[in-house]
Amino acid sequence: MNSQSPSGPLGGLLRVVRGYPRRAPLTLAYVCLLLVGHAWIGYGLSADRAATVLGYLSTNLDNLRDHPLPALLGSALFFDGTLTDVTSTDFVGTLITLGLGVCCFLAWVEHRWGKARAVAVFLGGHVVATLLTAVVISVGLQHGWYPTVVRQALDYGVSYGAQTVLAIGTLALPRWGRLPWAAFVLAWPLGGADWTGPLPDFTTIGHLVAAVIGFGLLGVPALRRQRVRATGSPRAASDFGLQRGSAPEPAPSPAAGTEPPPSV
User: What pLDDT shows up at residue 17?
Assistant: First the structure.
């Protein structure tokens, strides 16, 4: 006797969960790596050893000058947040960056545009936002807007890359939800901003820069075109339950040799 799958929102959610490994295998592997790294830092190492590892991978000014590649790449292997203290603001940040940014919207980008573009968008947002923020920090130090200790500040995690794909994920939403979502992406980092002068703390600057990068990428034609598979042009957004009610996109013309832009 075959059991019938649940219908409605619950059934849709179950279908999304079951299909997640097939639609976004690279994102799933990355999430698992982040969780393992979080457990290793939090429970596998002593507090002093964990501080040493994170201090070496931190993307502060001194590390970017001394060992830029290990800092830029290594800092993206951990997330700065909590999974257990559910009443804290850090947990809200974890839900936004790791939950929405990586688990949802990075998976959407991977399924819609493929693994290579997903890596390029996420890692590019992480690296470019970090480097531009370093420039802002340098200017701030010259003008006395930041204390000198910011040169060795602890700064690691996936939040800049997550912020970039959160902005790009605007395309996954119906038209009526895009403007409120864009406002949320820009506003949430300001909620906990620490102002010590004319500029907020550098992590808030980094999140805003990453959001601007993501919104800027929305205008890149190569990213706005939907990837075509052997079976035709899939409706990636609806596969992840992010957009419904839109008509299927037309198949590309064989004579044109190019993919049509998605309906936005």
Answer: 77
